[in-house]
Amino acid sequence: MVDKLLRTLICLVCLCAVQVSAEQYPSKPITIIVPFSAGGPTDTSARLLAQYMGETLKTQVIVENVAGAGGTMAAARVAGSPPDGYTVFFHHIGFSTAPSLYRKLPYDTIRDFEPLGMVGDVAMTLVARKDFPARGLKELIAYVKANKDKVNLANAGLGAASHLCGMLFMSAIQTDFTTIPYKGTGPAMNDLLGGQVDFMCDQTSNTISQIKAGKIKVYGVTTKTRVSALPDVPTLDEAGLKNFEISVWQGLYVPKATPKPIIEKLTKALQTALANPTLKQRFVELGTVPAGKESATPEALRKHLKAEIDKWGPIIKKAGVYAD
Ligand code: ASP
To answer: Of the residues 239, 258, 276, which one is the last residue of a structural domain?
Structure first.
């Protein structure tokens, strides 16, 4: 009896403490965990968002890169972090493909996280080193088929969007070639610029400035429609790869059991950031469509994540790509 009373009392004290900390939240810097290296497209989007969310939350929002294993290391780290709103996770489409790519994950994608909202959608571009011999998509396909033992494609590891896009390309042209995994496409881009790797399919946010500067070759964008910031670049579908389509959606999460008032504050800060005209413009310049208010909600992201897990499962199974 006394025991039960004591437990109830402890629970009440804990509840009050969470409530008080939720009211005072945030009272120290918040960390956004990015699952790839610094300098890549996920990092770029997260840093932009961090700056604007920090303004609303009136605290510093720091970005920490936890790269490795195609984003799954970072996810595991977030899943095991205290649910106090000070650890936020920025991830993309790869969060929904990992459950099918990895036979065993150190976290549960649905159970261990609370979604905050969608951030945006970014097209990918198929690009190659500047002196790559192929001049258009048709030549690229012919060249890759004829030199499949020689050419190599850079990606950010199993679970990365660049990996997924490369896999879709391989399957579309029915040709296997070598892939080189990096911890992010920031470092992969450096090697593409240096000519150490041949080609890559990556978020337009990482390729656009190099395309515009003429430092890399571009073969097409992966969305159904052209990207407004790259109006002269055809879609891969237009260029000859019928129905080739992938776009990288991004979302924000916190660990499961984060108090609701904290989730609401973070979601509000996300929505405020995405409504900011300067951030919006910057996103568009990077080939990213910022999420609207109705998509930047926990419900919308929860629904989208589940739908994407269901969508990619059979595709990945058919392609037979798994991590050991
Ligand atoms: N673009 C990478 C990917 O393929 C990740 C990154 O470095 O942002 O998912």
So the answer is: 239
Q: Which atom of ligand 1 is nearest to the CA of 43?
A: 8
Residue (of 189, 102, 121) closest to 154 by Cα position: 189
Final residue belonging to a domain, choices 196, 220, 239: 239
Q: Is the CB–ligand 1 distance for residue 40 below 6 Å?
A: yes
Nearest CA-CA partner of 295 in 228, 250, 255, 263: 250
Instruction: Kindly report, residue by residue over 219-253, the tens digit of the pLDDT.
Output: 999 999 999 999 999 999 999 999 999 999 999 99
For the CA of 186, the nearest atom of ligand 1: 7
Sign of torsion over alpha carbons 91, 94, 100, 103: negative
Residue 287 main-chain phi, psi, to 5 deg:
75, 20
The tens digit of pLDDT for each residue in 294-323 reads 999 999 999 999 999 999 999 888 877 777
